[in-house]
Amino acid sequence: PPQTPVRTAMNTIQQLQMILNTADDKPSNTLEAYFHNCTVNPTNGITNRVEYLGQRFRENFAQAVGEGWVEIGSQRYKLGVRLYYRVMESMLKSEEERLSVHNFSKLLNDATFHGSLLACAVEVVMTTYGTTWSITLTSDIQTETDLSFPWILRVFDIKAYEFYKVIESFIKAEPNLTREMIKHMERCEHRIMECIAWQTDSPLFDILRQQREQEDQPDQPEPTST
Amino acid sequence: FQDYHFGLDEGEGISELFDCD
């Protein structure tokens, strides 16, 4: 029988809790082994970034919905970090199998990759628990604060074009995402493709420019990325 | 996954997307 919106939301929360209740707040032994295999060990960069972005998240969350909700924001972020490590490990296992590579130094030292992956994980958590908050400013005025996508991009200072790159791999790496969550991520993709990636400060324009310059020089090797 | 459109080809993954291949 078709589900009510409330039942659907409850299922999504239960599914996320099932995945994350036993997940690590810190990199697992498997993940640490991948870090150790890197030419440059990325551990400090990763943990420092998680700490820094956590501060930014809590500040922006409190600013958006009020200081009284800071603890809720902290819990959301903590769950996002667990999902981030879990998906990172799953992605690395897939890449290891696909490429027969064990040293992921370049990827794991890429700040943009980590920022985008963490933003994606936090977006999943935020969407699961709902992102519209009604706050009362005075007894007569009530306003809604929208923390839905692309709010997280502003908080983490991530370009939509870079965030877009992790979405499909994220979905492949976490098979326990509900249908509703996958549809939400797909809507994020469409919004990026149709609008946000074309905003003035997008890296997409530099890439298009570089592609055009390479096409104008026929002796240049064909770029590996398209 | 049935409703999601997977755009990456067989030989493509996160490493290629971040120029780490």
Show the helix and strand layout.
The complex is a heterodimer of chains A (226) and B (21).
Chain A: H1 5-20, H2 29-36, H3 43-65, H4 70-99, H5 105-108, H6 111-129, E1 132-136, E2 142-146, H7 151-156, H8 160-173, H9 179-194, H10 204-215
Chain B: H1 14-17
Structure description:
The complex is a heterodimer of chains A (226) and B (21). The longest helix of chain A has 30 residues, at 70-99. In chain A, helix 4 packs across helix 8. In chain A, strand 1 and strand 2 (142-146) form a beta hairpin. Chain A has helices at residues 5-20, 29-36, 43-65, 70-99, 105-108, 111-129, 151-156, 160-173, 179-194, 204-215, and strands at 132-136, 142-146. With 226 residues, chain A is mainly alpha-helical. With 21 residues, chain B is mainly α. Chain B is 19% helix and 0% strand. Chain B is elongated, with a radius of gyration of 10 Å. The interface between A and B is medium-sized, with 25 and 16 residues.
Short description:
The complex is a heterodimer of chains A (226) and B (21). Chain A is 65% helix and 4% strand.
Keywords:
heterodimer; A: 226 residues; mainly alpha; two-stranded antiparallel ribbon; 10 helices; 65% helix; globular; B: 21 residues; 1 helix; elongated
Main sheet: strand order of chain A: 1-2
Q: Cα distance, first to last residue of chain B?
A: 26 Å
What Rg of chain B do the Cα atoms give? 10 Å
Total of helices of chain B: 1
Strand elements of chain A, count: 2
Strand content of chain B: under 5%
